[in-house]
Each structure stands twice: as C-alpha cells, then as structure tokens.
Write a structure and sequence with these properties.
It holds the Pfam family YwqH-like. This is DUF5082 domain-containing protein. InterPro entries: YwqH-like. By secondary structure, this protein is mainly alpha-helical. It has a single domain, classed as Helix Hairpins. The protein has two helices and no strands. Helix 1 packs antiparallel against helix 2.
Length: about 140
C-alpha cells in the first residue's frame, strides 16, 4: 500500500459527482417524457374512439341518400347538400387520420428520446462504477 494521492481522489470524486448530476438530470427528463407519453396515449385512445364512431355512422348515412321515389327540386336540393356534406365528412375523416398519425409519430419520437436518456444514464453509471473502482484501488 503506497501513499494516497488525495488530489487525484478528489478529482475522481468530482467526476463521479458530475456523472451523478447527469443521471439526475436525465431522470428528470425521463419523468417529463413519461408525463407527455401518458397524455399522448390518452389522446390517441380518444381520437381512435372518435374515428371508430365516425366510421360506424358513415355507412348508414351514406345509404340515406338513396331514395328512388324522390323527384324534382327537393331531390336536387338534397343531392346538392348531400354532396357538400359527404365531402366535408370525408375531409373530417382525413383530418382525424392525420391527427392520429401525428400523435403516433410524437409518441415514437418521445419513446426514442426516452431510450436515449436511459442510454445516457447507463453510460454515466458505467463511468461511475469505473471511477469508484479506480478510487478504491487508490485507497487500497
């Protein structure tokens, strides 16, 4: 057992502390990401339910415009309004699909970000472990 270099140990301990602070920071970011993911998953579920309801009512509504006994101005007026409604209905469905896709993309982005943060934590923990080993050997 040789002479202990306390300056080197102090320097190594500062590195351990810096890694510990990085871990705390990454854990805080993960907590924030988890909160966002929870809200997005709830929104995704709600949008999915709305999409299903919109889809389920489309078929019966589409068949209401088939009224062979209708004639004249009322039929023409109805068909014109029906075409406008049908176009707007389709636009709404498309917007809901886009919104759902955007939510899925954001969930994936945040999950990937969380994986990166976990990687940072793992790397910092490995560095702390190595530094702890080195400090222990210096003190021995």
């Amino acid at each position: 057992m040789g002479e202990v270099d306390y300056m080197q140990i102090d320097s190594l301990q500062r590195q351990v502390n810096a890694h510990s602070a990085s871990i705390s920071s990454a854990q805080s970011r993960i907590t924030t990401i988890d909160e966002k993911l929870e809200r997005l998953r709830t929104a995704k579920k709600s949008v999915g339910e709305i999409q299903k309801k919109v889809h389920d009512i489309r078929y019966p509504i589409n068949h209401r415009n088939i009224q062979p006994e209708w004639q004249g101005k009322q039929k023409d007026a109805f068909i014109k309004q029906w075409e406008t409604f049908s176009t707007e209905y389709t636009t709404f469905q498309t917007e809901m699909d886009t919104f759902y896709d955007d939510i899925c993309d954001e969930i994936t982005r945040l999950e990937n970000q969380k994986n990166e943060e976990n990687g940072i934590i793992g790397w910092c923990q490995s560095q702390m472990n190595n530094l702890g080993n080195f400090i222990e050997k210096l003190l021995h």
